[in-house]
Structure to design on (493 residues):
């Protein structure tokens, strides 16, 4: 009996070794599968391997906005010399943004909305706003909202976040702390231009929404950070898919040069002048790290009852979103907020669509499962069909602390061929020249992505059909803009 503990210990060690061996074999198999799958895709091009010489976090925190844009000019000059000027052979296609003679080369459009920009109002500024674009996007994605703020007397500062606007390879060598440092820099510049005595708003789209929230939480803890008076979030990246957590593992084979393609989750033609189509592992990894830091900070501050100083949050979210977690917007953000005038606007699916029988069963229950009937500390507005036989829409409004729903008819209709909004549609009006269904100037940027409707065989196109099917503009943009304007001019409520 004296040897029993020793025998148990030996057996535990043996079992542990066997488990470790099995896990090691599984890991090797997964890595082998990852290597195999990554090598089946398209070849890497110069724009996938080029990296930008972005400022570090310390450099950004010490820089002026003028110094940041000066470095940006150098980065774009390097891009032109090392990528665009060296594009050759079969890469010289009419829809390659890195071919100088292509239809979509950003250098031919003025101003180039891949770069940081500032919009000054006429007369003395009555406010300041910082607008943050999404992951793989560029400042173009928040251009329309920035212009609206400018027309209402606000200084609008729109920074290009590190790794963006140039070439997708630049996203392989950045981290989310650099994006957050750029947010702080943009707030400093907006304050310098407008003064501290006027309201500060922060607008964030997708990944920019996570940065906006993170900045607001940091400002609660740091007296050196200016506190915003309003947050506006569009398809905010509060939570991402579970796969993003393991994206770093998926990129491990890329440590060996022969398996460089493993650093990419998607390699696609670059035909969009203001957004990357290719998606590196590091981008997914950084988005997950950012959302984890944000969720942990929100939970901690909620437990410690320190969220009372947060500004009101106005968020717009499609109930169907394949990029971010719609549920996380509710459970990880809005359910944590104090009663401070925050509001969530949800775009429902098109209940009157003729292809209704093709919907997955989960689509019908998505809204009710997302927003069960209960008292909330925030208002909820649902944009949906007036009834299941009509493309007319209504806003169903439930105020904070109430179960009473008010139905307000809207002068907007669902397009018959659109069955839902998408993550990428929310910030773009229907007349946007690149993404709109009804562009004001078709092909102004070489292509009008929102008008593409292709029919044919499945194996012909070099671009995935999923990308072409995704709706790229928001038929309810005017309503969204009007709701934002009420926060810009509270007296108009």
């Amino acid at each position: 009996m004296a040897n029993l503990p020793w025998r148990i210990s030996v057996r535990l060690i043996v079992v542990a070794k066997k488990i470790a061996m099995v896990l090691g074999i599984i890991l090797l198999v997964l890595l082998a599968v990852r290597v195999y799958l990554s090598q089946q895709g398209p070849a890497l091009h110069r724009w996938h391997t080029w990296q930008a010489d972005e400022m570090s976090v310390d450099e950004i925190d010490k820089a002026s906005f003028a110094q940041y844009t000066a470095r940006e000019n150098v980065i774009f000059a390097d891009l032109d010399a090392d990528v665009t000027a060296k594009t050759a052979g079969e890469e010289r296609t009419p829809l390659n943004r890195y071919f100088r003679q292509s239809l979509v080369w950003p250098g031919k459009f003025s101003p180039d909305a891949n770069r940081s920009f500032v919009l000054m109002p006429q007369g003395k500024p009555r406010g300041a706003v910082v607008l943050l674009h999404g992951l793989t996007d560029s400042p173009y994605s928040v251009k329309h909202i920035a212009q609206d703020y400018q027309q209402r007397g606000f200084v609008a500062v729109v920074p290009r976040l590190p790794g963006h606007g140039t070439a997708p390879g630049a996203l392989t060598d950045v981290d989310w702390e650099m994006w957050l440092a750029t947010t702080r820099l943009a707030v400093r510049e907006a304050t310098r231009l407008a003064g501290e005595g006027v309201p500060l708003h922060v607008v964030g789209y997708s990944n920019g929404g996570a940065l906006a929230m993170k900045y607001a939480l940091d400002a609660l803890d740091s007296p050196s950070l200016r506190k915003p008076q309003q947050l506006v979030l569009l398809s905010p990246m509060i939570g991402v898919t579970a796969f993003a957590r393991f994206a770093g593992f998926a990129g491990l084979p890329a440590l060996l040069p022969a398996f460089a393609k493993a650093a990419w989750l998607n390699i696609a033609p670059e035909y969009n002048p203001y957004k990357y189509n290719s998606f590196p592992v590091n981008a997914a990894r950084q988005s997950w790290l950012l959302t984890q830091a944000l969720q942990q900070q929100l939970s901690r501050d909620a437990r410690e009852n320190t969220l009372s100083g947060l500004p009101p949050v106005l968020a717009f979210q499609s109930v169907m979103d394949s990029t971010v977690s719609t549920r996380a917007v509710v459970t990880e953000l809005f359910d944590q907020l104090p009663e401070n005038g925050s509001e969530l606007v949800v775009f429902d699916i098109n209940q009157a669509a003729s292809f209704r029988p093709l919907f997955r069963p989960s689509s019908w229950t998505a809204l009710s499962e997302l927003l069960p009937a209960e008292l909330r500390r925030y208002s909820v507005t649902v944009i949906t069909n007036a009834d299941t036989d009509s493309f007319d829409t209504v806003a169903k409004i439930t105020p904070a602390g109430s179960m009473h729903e008010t139905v307000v008819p809207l002068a907007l209709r669902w397009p018959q061929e659109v069955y839902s909004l998408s993550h990428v549609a929310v910030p773009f009006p229907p007349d946007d020249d690149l993404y709109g269904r009804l562009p004001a100037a078709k092909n102004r940027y070489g292509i009008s992505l929102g008008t593409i409707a292709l029919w044919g065989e499945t194996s012909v196109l070099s671009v995935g059909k999923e990308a072409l099917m995704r709706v790229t503009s928001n038929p309810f943009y005017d309503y969204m803009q009007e709701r934002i304007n009420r926060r810009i001019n509270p007296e108009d409520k």
User: Anything to note?
Assistant: The longest strand covers residues 406-413. The two ends are 81 Å apart (CA to CA). Residues 43-492 form a domain with the Rossmann fold fold (CATH 3.40.50.1820).
